[in-house]
Amino acid sequence: MDQLIDIEIVNSIRDVGDMSENDGFAEELLKLFVEQSELAVRSIGEATARADFDVVKYYAHRLKGSAANVGARQLSRKASELEELAKDGALDEDRVRVLLDELSQVREASLTELRRLFGTAESAGASGSFPPC
Amino acid sequence: MKRWDKSALSGIQGGNSYTITLDDDPIVARMVQEILGIKTFAFVNASELKANFDQLDPIGVFVDIHLAGDECGLDIVPQIKARWPYCPIIVVTSDYAESLVGQALAIGADDFILKPIRPGELIARLLTRKSEIDLRNNQTILRFGDVTLNLRHKSLNGPKGQVFQSPREVEILAYLIRSQGVVIDKANLKRRIWGNISVSDNALDRKLFEVRKGIRAVSDSVEIRAVYGQGIVLRHKSFKEDQVLLDDFESRLRASPPSPTREQGGSSSQWTSSSTLKL
Questions:
Q1: d(CA A31, CA B241)
Q2: Minimal Cα–Cα distance from B45 to chain A, Å?
Q3: A18-62 pLDDT, tens per residue?
């Protein structure tokens, strides 16, 4: 199993924040990630419901990159799996749904850990919850 | 212990320096801006960036390969290179697909970085590519194929002889040489050479005629080629020149073979690096 968080990336973000004139950089980045990852997971869920796997592939790819950039390594890998599945010609909708559930869980766990590591005061509710797909 | 030194960026910080990101993920723009400590203008699609070409003059462009709506960031790389030939273009991607990265470099990108973005790598790649481009632009002797342009003496040399050109003609040819085979549209060329002075297409064509005439006078292998609907490009007429170099290399190799030495413990002789071959 992959590590949930890539601590090296988290440390480099902290370093960027320390060198920056902007005191709240890490917090701002995490907030942006909460929004972007929420958008991605919600869009993937909606696209799965209407079997639009191009959209699934697009948001999975985007989530793969943004999760990697904030150090959410396991989430990035899950998004990559989903992207590969959506790229596949023979689409398995049930498998996509299972992966999407896993993705949501890993996202929640990642956000909790990132908040702890960045020491941000963001409330747990800010991560948003997703309607069942 | 931080793994990079931000002080290296002092040369590009301050003033009106800024970079551009073309990425549908806003996190990338935010990170690039904070890491470099200079303003970043974020664009999420190629058409939005193209619509703002005229207002912008960045010191670095970071382009994602996969954009929204099946748009590919690589499609705009040649246009970015043509617009800002002195600006490093760095492809940012989360997929190391060799073919895509290779394609990006072939069409005008200067380098690439993989996500996750690592601050030290981002800074190093931008500064390295920028200094390479600056070095190229500060040279007074520029070469393209068998043609040599001397910016100080305003002279153009080649196998057929030497000619002298006017300052504007030299500027045009220097710009084309520095653009490294990228097609330059005429509006962009006019802006680069004459700045805000309004210049007619006829005036530019007259200057290009003189530049072409100069090239023809000194070389048979270099030409300015018009690319219909896109602009002009300085190019090699054929691969003949490469063939001449290869033939020359081969003939020198045959004329002065390096001394063979026997590898210790080995049974076969092989060429050593202490070859007497000089090219």
A1: 57
A2: 14
A3: 887 777 899 999 999 999 999 999 999 999 888 888 899 899 999
**Closest-CA residue of chain A to B30:** A29
Give the closest residue to B56 by CA, choosing from B24, B17, B114. B17
pLDDT value of position A33: 97
Chain B closest-CA separation from residue A29 CA (Å): 7
- Chain B hits for A23, CB-CB cut-off 8 Å, are none
Name the DSSP letter for residue B68.
G
Check if A3 contacts B (Cβ < 8 Å): no
CATH 3.40.50.2300 fits B6-137, yes or no: yes
Two tokens, residue B1: 């212990």
Interchain pair A16, B30: CB under 8 A:
no
Number of structural domains chain A divides into:
1
Which residue positions in chain B have pLDDT lower than 70? 1-8, 10-15, 98, 238-250, 252-279
Q: Determine, yes or no, domain membership for A11.
A: yes
Q: What is the pLDDT of residues A88-118, one digit of tens each?
A: 755 677 888 898 999 999 999 999 999 999 8
DSSP symbol at B237: S
Q: Where exactly does CATH 3.40.50.2300 map onto chain B?
A: 6-137
ipTM over 0.95: no
- Please list every residue in chain B whose beta carbon sits closer than 8 Å to the beta carbon of residue A36: 25-27
pLDDT tens for residues B213-235? 999 999 998 999 888 888 898 98
Cα B69 to the center of its chain, rounded Å: 29
Q: Rounded distance, CA B158 to CA B152, Å?
A: 17
Q: What is the pLDDT of residues B111-158, one digit of tens each?
A: 999 999 999 899 999 999 998 888 887 888 888 989 999 998 899 999
- Take residue B61 and report the two structure tokens written for it: 């462009």
Chain B residues within 8 angstroms (CB to CB) of chain A: 2-3, 6, 24-28, 30-31, 34-35, 37, 64, 66, 68, 70, 94, 115-120
pLDDT at A123: 44
Residue numbers in B near A29 (CB within 8 A): 27, 30-31, 34
User: Are residues B117 and A29 in contact, defined by beta-carbon separation less than 8 angstroms?
Assistant: no
Contact B94 A58 (CB under 8 A): no
Residues B111 and B88 sit within 8 Å (Cβ to Cβ) = yes
CATH topology of domain B141-236: Arc Repressor Mutant, subunit A (1.10.10)
Q: Where residue A79 sits, what CATH number does that domain have?
A: 1.20.120.160
